[in-house]
């Protein structure tokens, strides 16, 4: 029997059916999934624009003046959106919008990843990201700032060297806007933040939490759309990432979660992104809760998902959490 679960806030449907976990396949397997798993194990590549010594291959590091850098932020040479702030209307269905697209080069070492970095490197990365995020979100010409990381080819990455991206523009993303509006409708009905309620529910259930520290919690969401999908949320109600003050605790949480996932499912491709309250939604500050979301790309989407908008997941989140805790010796068998 299959089970359909609804997202706590948006009511997005996910079908869970663990029978399909063992379906036969000769196309989607680990060898194909990790077609570029075998990276050269080198700290420097003469062809990599992000390696130390190859700074001439990228735009000037305009945000930092350090010569012996640990993390640097540079303009993206191939931006999704251009850097000049200008809006030009073409018709009611189309307008030209420009913004700012940066790359965060997360390490000087070519072969270092989120699975091999130490905690200190995570601290440096997220201190710089937080600083840059605040600069961008406070720009009057910017409505939305997207922070995201693509890892491996199946995660959409084009370069091996560890990096993330921060893209700011004047447009409002429909998906995030819908989630924020849904949380506000919940708040008007329940007089509480749905994410705070979700955290209280999960802490009592003790089935889907994989790690927590003093200020943050990591869990496999109840209606997770992807295998081993993981959310990281502040325990206290904070609607906007720019208002976060406990960056060292966030860094420790990210460092720990990526280690836990690596020990469970290996060197997997993923996307990670930040959801934070939009600037024009100040009335929703009590109903929305910012979060980091990690989406492993270890299963593909098929025609049913595309035609229906309903995801199919063959691993229940409580089973995923159990597997993570078991693999990391965090529970007694």
UniProtKB/TrEMBL annotation:
PANTHER family in UniProt: ADP-GLUCOSE PHOSPHORYLASE (PTHR42763:SF2)
Cofactor stoichiometry and binding remark: Binds 1 zinc ion per subunit.
Residue ranges of domain Galactose-1-phosphate uridyl transferase N-terminal in the record: 4-173
Binding residue positions for Zn(2+): 48, 51, 110, 161
Record keyword Nucleotidyltransferase present: yes
Keyword match Ribosomal protein: no
Gene Ontology annotations of biological process type: galactose metabolic process
Cofactor: Zn(2+)
Organism listed in the record: Peptoanaerobacter stomatis
Name this protein carries in UniProt: Galactose-1-phosphate uridyl transferase, N-terminal domain protein
Keyword terms: Carbohydrate metabolism, Metal-binding, Nucleotidyltransferase, Transferase, Zinc
InterPro entries membership: ADP-glucose_phosphorylase, GalP_UDPtransf1, GalP_Utransf_N, HIT-like_sf
Active site: 163
GO molecular function: UDP-glucose:hexose-1-phosphate uridylyltransferase activity; zinc ion binding
């Amino acid at each position: 029997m299959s089970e359909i679960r609804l997202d706590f806030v948006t009511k997005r449907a996910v079908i869970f059916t663990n029978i399909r976990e063992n379906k036969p396949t000769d196309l989607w397997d680990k060898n194909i999934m990790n077609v570029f798993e075998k990276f050269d194990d080198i700290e420097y590549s003469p062809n990599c624009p992000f390696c130390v010594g190859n700074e001439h291959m990228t735009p000037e590091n305009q945000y930092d003046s350090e010569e012996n850098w640990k993390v640097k932020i540079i303009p993206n040479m191939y931006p999704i959106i251009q850097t000049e702030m200008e809006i030009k209307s073409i018709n009611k269905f189309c307008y030209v919008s420009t913004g700012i697209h940066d790359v965060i080069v997360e390490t000087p070492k070519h072969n270092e990843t989120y699975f091999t970095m130490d905690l200190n490197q995570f601290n440096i990365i997220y201190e710089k990201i937080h600083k840059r995020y605040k600069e961008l979100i406070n720009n009057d010409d910017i409505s939305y700032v997207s922070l995201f990381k693509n890892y491996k080819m199946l995660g959409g990455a084009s370069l091996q060297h560890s990096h993330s991206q921060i893209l700011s523009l004047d447009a409002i993303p429909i998906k995030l806007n819908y989630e924020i509006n849904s949380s506000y409708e919940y708040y008007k009905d329940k007089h509480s933040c749905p994410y705070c309620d979700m955290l209280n529910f999960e802490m009592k259930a003790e089935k889907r939490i994989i790690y927590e520290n003093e200020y943050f919690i990591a869990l496999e969401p109840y209606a997770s759309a992807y295998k081993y999908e993981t959310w990281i949320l502040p325990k206290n109600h904070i609607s906007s990432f720019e208002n976060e003050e406990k960056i060292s605790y966030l860094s420790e949480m990210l460092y720990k979660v990526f280690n836990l996932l690596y020990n469970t499912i290996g060197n997997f491709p993923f996307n990670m992104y930040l959801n934070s309250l939009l600037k024009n939604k100040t009335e929703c500050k009590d109903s929305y809760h910012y979060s980091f979301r990690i989406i492993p790309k270890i299963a593909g989407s098929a025609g049913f998902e595309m035609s229906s908008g309903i995801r199919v997941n063959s691993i229940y989140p409580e089973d995923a959490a159990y597997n993570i805790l078991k693999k990391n010796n965090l529970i007694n068998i």
